Amino acid sequence: xxRFACMGLLVTAFAFSESIVxxxxxxxxxxxxxxxxxxxxxxxxxDVTAHVGEHAVMLVRLRxxxxxxxxxxxxxxxxxxxxxxxxxxxxxxxVDGKAEDGALVFAVGLTPTAPGRHPIxxxxxVGYIRDPGEMWMISVPLIANVIGEK
Length: 150
Fold this sequence. Notes:
Elements: H1 2-24, E1 41-45, E2 48-51, E3 56-64, E4 69-70, E5 77-83, E6 88-90, E7 94-96, E8 98-100, E9 103-112, E10 116-131, E11 134-149
Parallel strand pairs: 2-11
Antiparallel strand pairs: 1-3, 3-9, 4-10, 5-7, 5-10, 6-9, 8-9, 10-11
């Protein structure tokens, strides 16, 4: 009896994994890196200028393109911050997005630690809805600059 129950679990697990594999064939195109114009979101980020050692906040918006909307039930976040030269200190390793006026807004706390222009990057992990039955979670790159003044 136990042998059949275990086999039933294996068959169920196999059937479940098959449905995932079949569904994965309908994945969203990975276009946010290779073709940003095809990405469901538009990144709106301005350079931030602050005195060296002075705290600043970079507001970054992800605005969905026409035909898309924010998947608010998902934990939309921005993380994996780094600066090219290591001259920017980030307050947190991850920032949650807040839905405002149909867009996602991220407040990134940071401090320049040296004078000059410092390229920074991060990765958004966000969800979107296109049709009532279609939703996806994707990664979108953030590239911006922090300018440290003396």
